[in-house]
Write a structure and sequence with these properties.
Elements lengths: L2 H18 L3 H6 L5 E4 L2 E4 H9 L11 E11 L6 E14 L3 E18 L2 E14 L11
Length: about 140
Amino acid sequence: MNKEETAILALMREYCDSIDRGDLAGCAALFSDGSWGIEGSMAQGADEVKAQLDNVTLYEGKPLTRHLMSNVQIFAEEGSTTAEARSCITVMQCVPPDFPMQAIFIGTYYDTYALRESEWCFVERRIVPDLVGNMAFHRADMA
């Protein structure tokens, strides 16, 4: 794995970790110069992304989720200033005692990145759903 791929993988992990920790503002900040959303409904910039993330239901500050990435493929040439990635995402959630642990979302992330001022940044994270479960405990707009 080259240094570009390592840095991009760290950014991909930070996205999942920030959501699962309930740091929705921190997650939105990852898209200060980028776009994020479900294919066909993209938010642009940190403010729009944060407005979308405000629909996430928090329980004592956390969504009680785990965003699990798998089959990660990063396409970054050594020395390049742009890159793409694709990964599978499974979101697990458990809200005791009413909602036992289960997969609530399975899909694919299609990402583009750019190197700006020596840091890799999201240009776009397009989320394509494959299987959607019970999202009522995860998003206020789906309750």
